[in-house]
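Could someone model N-(aminocarbonyl)-beta-alanine with this protein?
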Amino acid sequence: MSSTLIKSGRVITAADDYIGDVLIENERISLIGESLDVDADKVVDASGKYVLPGGVDPHTHLDMPFGGTVTIDDVESGQTAAAFGGTTCHVDFVIQPRGATFAAALDEWRGKADGKQVIDMGYHMAITDLDEGGSLEELAGLPEQGVTSYKLFMAYKGALMVDDETLFRSMQVAADSGALVMVHAENGDAIDVLVKDALAAGNTEPRYHALTRPPETEGEATNRAIQLARVAGAPLYVVHVSCHEAVEPIALAREKGWNVWGETCTQYFFVDYTFLERPNFEGAKFVYTPPPRDKANQDVLWNAVRTDILSAVSTDHCAFNWDGQKTLGKDDFSKIPNGGPGLENRLHMIHEFGVRAGRISLNRMVELLSTSPAKLFGLYPRKGTIAVGSDADIVVFDPDKKHTISASTHHSKVDYNLYEGTEITGSPELVLLRGNVLVENDELVASPGIGQYVARARFGEELKAETAVA
Ligand code: URP
Ligand code: ZN
Ligand code: ZN
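Reply:
Sure, complex below.
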């Protein structure tokens, strides 16, 4: 049994902040104390460093066919990027191909991860079809296999979008099966009309991606999903909230005590509509959905994460190369594959512009990036905290380490970075997955295959250490 002792670090969880020692044995945290007098195979001097729970990213798309192409990051490259950024667990989306059963879809996605996993992962099931492929009965059985969240797209008409009947029936199943319903909330029908109108008028540049998806379409769908979830009695999680119009109905629902949560993504704090106007088709790098909004929304989002109107920050990492993939839409913005990268830089950016800028506390940062996603998605307390019995997924974070974010040094395969040239202070120095060293001295130490599939607990239930890994 190998052991690691992390000494004299500033241990920060969602609730705590103290200087202490953390002992890891058999992949778990076995002891925490002020000054532990124990032998260990490896001793890490963490004085002057933060000791954080590994990041949990609840929203990623690796090796996903979308928009006429496939995301450039597969499980190995995406998870390698995640590890360098201090994320040790994520939940990726299985997309049910139309006509396929959920079992076939899940098998296909697990096959993509086979032997490639660098960090731990679970899956959400994105439902596209309840008629020809998966049935309501099959859907109800997914939580048994550790897939305890269903995702529905209210946009992307003709591709992933479902109608309200499918959305509502899925919510009814979730209410019984113990799953959390996730929605991509935009009014896909209205957007489809606006896109057709724009193209008919000869408006083809990237900025029309945003102009045809106004914030009201996000606000309307968010409200619709909240009301339907209320009728069905299902818990609801609204993904990638980008604007005031969507924050407002979530705030109202939470004020009423309804089972509604929302996330935003790193990019919505930093990228605004004007990025889409960059010349020479550079704007296409920022074509993701919902689109970058007017800058005023950035303060709305900071306020929402500070006050727990929004409960998590994900990346929605869905990376396409600019050259060769984004350029599919050179003459038609609607053909630009939607999605942006970010898996590696969530902690960097939120620490720099959230914590160091005084917008949120260190505890709140840990809560948004790790604890709250772990709790909502059935991973807690195995993931998302530093506690005796939890997996030793730990980031030793140097708050003084300077780094310039760049595509030339990041670990994703994608050929650009949304935050190119941003200078930050504070970066992971050592990243452990279940006590195994993933990243040390800016090198990936572990080999692919070390990551595991995590069967998640049902919504509202805890994931105990003994039960989880399949
Ligand atoms: O543009 C995005 N966000 N692409 C990924 C799919 C989704 O909508 O989450
Ligand atoms: Zn989406
Ligand atoms: Zn997404």
